[in-house]
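Can you give me the bound-state structure? Components:
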Amino acid sequence: MVDIPEHLLQRSAEARAKALGISVEQAMAEMKGQSDPTIISKEPEVKVIDETPAPAAETPAPAAETPAPAAETPAPAAETPAPETVAPVKEEHAAETTEKVAAVKIEEKAPAAKTPPPAKADAPDEVDFAPDVKVTQRLLTVVKAKPIQKPVKEPIDKVNTWPHLMLPEFVALMAMTAFLIFLSAILQAPLLEEANPNVTPNPAKAPWYFLGLQEMLSYWDPQIAGVMIPTVVGLILWMAFPYIDRNPETHPSKRKFAIMFYTFFLAGAGTLTIIGVLFRGPGWNWVYPWIDGIWFDDLLDWIHFE
Amino acid sequence: MSFRDRLKETRAKASDGFRGGKLMSSIFRPGSPFRKGYVDSPRNRSYVVMNNVLYHLHPVKVKRHGVRLSYTLCLGGLSFFLFIVLTITGIWLMFYFRPTELAYVDIQNLQTTIAFGSLVRNMHRWGAHLMVLVVFLHMSRVFYHGAYKAPREFNWVIGVILLLLTLLLSFTGYLLPWDQLAIWAVTVGGNMAGYVPVVGAQVKFGLFAGLEATTATLLRFYVLHVLFFPFIIVIFMAVHFWRVRKDGGISGPL
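Here's the bound-state model for the whole set.
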């Protein structure tokens, strides 16, 4: 059975309660099959003037049509199960309703399945009301016209940029400014004597972010360490990385190789840079900064040493 | 009504009249907190972002997890902010700097005689080092979050170009103080470029504007530093930020 939305069930229950003169809760319970359906011996709304059973097969009414006059017939009709007393909707009347408002018969599995309509033997299946018969109609439910399938987009939890993003950003900018001004106030940028192409300092060091490269240059041929590794590894491989790593997972546990790869790269580059900055002295020989001092002029004002 | 109350009322009225006046409402578009009648409503929160060219880098709404400081550590934003700080301090330094034989004297004057000269120079230098570091950390953050994956592959490529441009900006600026540290660091770096196969000598010659670092190199690096690379990096930054939004904002939670 199709799941009927709660609000439609509620409306049906109200209509049923009104029609049968029972409480809404009772009607709801009946429709859900939680209690026995109310059986009424006769339908008060339907007044049949002409009792003569109509000739069979005159109007082939759909199966949903109830043998309404069965209510008048004495013995078997009294046991007519509830569903059949619920919605005596005639074709002509149904046709008058708009396409959006349709009278829907609420199906009740339990009694309907157990007891086949006993009236069948005595009362004819199809009944034709005379045109002057008064039949009251009641609205059971309203079926709104809407698509059967609704494409549902997963909702994303979002917040307003102002103020939820912009305030933290502002605080971060202020903190960075404060940090930079503080740093600049206490640390003097290095300024050695004027540039002199004739006097080569020993060692001559590149800016710190190139010192890893300079360190590699001391191991290998400059063609390899100075050109091949920076361009091939540093640029081409690095730019192409998203096109090489086609694993769509983002969680670290599902991309262990990539994480490992990058961490090794970080560790390698960091080690080389630290060695280049702190552990290389005159003639690019190994020195210990705590013994021989720091041979990196950018750090002149950072650590005072003899 | 006491004098004090009247004064208060007059002041409030004047303030309201000014904030609600034609001048202020012509400057600030609807929804601005600087405009009269700003109330904290979803509509006005949207207007704050939509009606301001500077805030327009952001979408009106962002994913909730992206707002957490622990997710991005603000590294991308801070890279951009450091670039702005470096632009401002750099323009200020340009007033006092000549890329000639006088460069060294100019730096000495900056440090000794010009008001705030030393502070601004320090900010420019440490800010530059910090920017290299922050850009690198930003790249690491993006990598560890797998934020370079589809559909953001191309933005990663642009990011690597931005890192390269940051290094080039820092490297060209390194020569400008024209002291022993500067000239020899650049000599070492330029010699590395000389190892490029086939065209190494030409590249080195083009970089140094000669066979070795001279004042011609200084002028060359100066123009590259204050004009050429900033121009290029701004273009790439614009594409980078644009792609961040077009690719669906910040990457998803882990």
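A couple of observations. Residues 6-120 of chain A form one domain. The radius of gyration of chain A is 45 Å.
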